[in-house]
Amino acid sequence: MQKNSNLDHTAPLRSLTSRFYETERDLQQMQALLMEARSRADDWHYWHVGDLTWGFFILACHLKPQEQIRLWHDEEGKLVAYAVLGEDPSFDCQVLPEYEWSGIESEAVAWAKSPTVPQPSARCGIRGSLARSATMITRASCACPASSVSSMW
Fold first, then answer.
1. Residue 63 lies in a domain
2. Is the dihedral of CA 110, 107, 7, 1 positive or negative?
3. Does residue 6 belong to any structural domain of this protein?
4. First CA to last CA distance, the chain
5. Domain range for residue 98?
6. What is the count of structural domains for the chain?
7. What residues have CB less than 8 Å from 55, skipping those under 6 apart?
8. Which value, to the nearest 10 degrees, does the dihedral of the CA atoms of residues 25, 27, 32, 35 take?
9. pLDDT tens, the chain, 153 aa long
10. Cβ(69)–Cβ(153) under 8 Å?
């Protein structure tokens, strides 16, 4: 019987905390998680930080990141996973390799399926482009309510 390589490198059960996205610091930690995971993984199932940046920009223009992004931290406060519930509905969950299949994915899917997850609000038009940034969203001309994107700037 072949062993499941995903299960061979999972972290032992640890005390994880989960919360919603709050500030730009969370986005920076999400980017760092992707860079760390991509540097250690031998496949491409992790998003590129540019994909995250663009996806976050679009999400912030249409929805509230504080309601659509869930974060998981270890006992030392390190971000080990995040899940994003977008429109369509789209869903993505990124987990550091050593935490894969430790229960985060199941918890993320249950959260995404929860009837308490907010539905998309009124859409806004994007009328501009990113002004600066290679790894971080900085300024954009978006007709979004200020509360939707305030944590990005």
1. yes
2. negative
3. no
4. 52
5. 15-152
6. 1
7. 47, 84, 86, 92
8. -160
9. 333 344 444 455 568 999 999 999 999 999 999 999 999 887 778 999 999 999 999 999 999 999 999 999 999 999 999 999 988 778 999 999 999 999 999 999 999 998 776 655 433 333 222 222 222 332 222 333 334 333 443
10. no
